[in-house]
Amino acid sequence: MRAKFNLSMRHTVALFILLAALVSKSLQAQYEIKLSNSYPPYNFVNEEEDLVGFNVDILNAIQDIYDTDINLQGGEWYSINEELNNGKIHAIAGTHYPGSPDNDYIYTRSTINTSHCFLYNGNYKNKFSLEYFRSLKKPLVALWQNDVLIRYVHSINPTAEFIFVNDYEKLVMALDRKDVTCIVAQKVAAMYYATKLGKDYIHSLNHQLLERSMGFKVAKSSPELAEILNNGLEVILANGQYQQIYNKWIEPYAKRSNPWQSYYKYFLLSGIIISVLSLFLLTANYVLKTRIRSKTKDLQHQLEVNSEIMKELEEQKNKAEESDRMKSAFLANMSHEIRTPMNGILGFTELLRTADYSSQEQEQFIQVIEQSGNRMLETINNIIDVSKLESGIEQAQHKEMNIKHMLIELHDFFIREAKVKEIQLILEEKETTSAQPFVSDEHKLNSILTNLIKNAIKFTSEGYVKVTYHIGKDFAEFWVSDTGIGIAQHKQASIFNQFEQGEGAYSRAYEGSGLGLSITKGYVDLLDGAIRVESEPQKGTTFYVRIPNHERVG
Length: 554
What we know:
- By secondary structure, the protein is an alpha+beta fold.
- It has 15 helices and 20 strands.
- The protein has helices spanning 2-27, 54-66, 77-85, 130-135, 147-156, 168-173, 187-196, 223-239, 241-249, 251-254, 264-352, 359-391, 403-420, 442-458, 516-526; strands spanning 31-36, 38-39, 43-45, 51-52, 70-75, 91-96, 105-107, 112-121, 140-143, 161-164, 182-186, 202-204, 209-219, 399-401, 424-429, 438-440, 464-471, 475-482, 530-536, 540-548.
């Protein structure tokens, strides 16, 4: 009985282990690929601790094409090779292909070819070449300890001596030593560090040595991965992605040095000769052009004169049309603004002659007559004010004034009208930054604010009218805002013209001569101030006025 129980337990444990293995395998990526994390710009960990570089972007591009689940990680070169040998990962990216056959692994097609070269410090040596290096006695060369490189350098100069460095940054910095003749290093990696360290005086020879292919080293057990990588490389080579990746990571550091630098003086001399010849040809060409230009000058002048005449005629035509429009607007507005209150006065005066109305009704008639008379008087006063402004008779009379007191009086005057329309009239003061007297024309500033507040109340049926002001040392600012009908964008540029309102002259729903804002603009200009408007239809309008503080005279 106990034996059967133990057998059953063993089966249960075995099934549990098998299930755990399957779950663990399902949680892993389809392929595990690693590469060195310290071989820039091919593959390295940047300052943000991200694995980046040429080979990383190549692999990501292939992964996007095949939608393959690949887990890409970095590590130490020796460790990741051990992991591939032990079957813990499927491939290594960025590996150099061996010079002899290797049947233990699958090598994909090359992603890039690398090579070594001589690099030197331009601050210490203006000219460097293999011939120059061959002529030196016991030159000191810094490089990685590599038998092939050592033998190659000795084949050029048998007296060469070496210092061995196992870090690219230290290898590049070795060129700052005056006793170091040059270094031999992988060109792209060395120039990457030279650029990173800001050593623009480090140059490379175009002579290449130890050329090797770089690509993917894949485990024999993953031939399908090798096929994906090979096919993916073909695709990105064809669609241009490879070139983009190459230009991003390799091109800045793989540029060839100019082999013609030693012939600079000859180029310079040739350039001078060519410049002299070009100057001679340009001079001859100029003489010919001058002669041709002199023959056509009269014709061009006549064309310009004709063009100016046509332009002036067009301007005069536009002015005449504008004058006709303004005259029509004037007649239409004045006819309306004088005839309407006059009809009210005459009509209700006729009613008062009869005795068929009560004293209360007669009082209402008198109020209508009074309102109509005030409206006519306001229209006449506006016409007089506009005439004074246009003729230059109106002048500013500057004197010390109390802006705050004036605004309180305006608020008290208009609050009744606002209450009748059931809207709020708000007076708000921003922080005053100056206690010195303010000097300006009180009458004209009062007229400016009166017109703006009156218009705001007139065109607002609900909500509020808000007057905000700020008194500074050099100027005073005023904002008159409302929640009224607003002004269309295309109308905002013309509202300061005479007889203009936000609505059309014949279809507007609000009375008024259309002279108020024109007078306001004229008074603002007289006071050397500025005025502007911001508005949105059906949401409201804000007028901004800025008036300078004039120095008191006497």
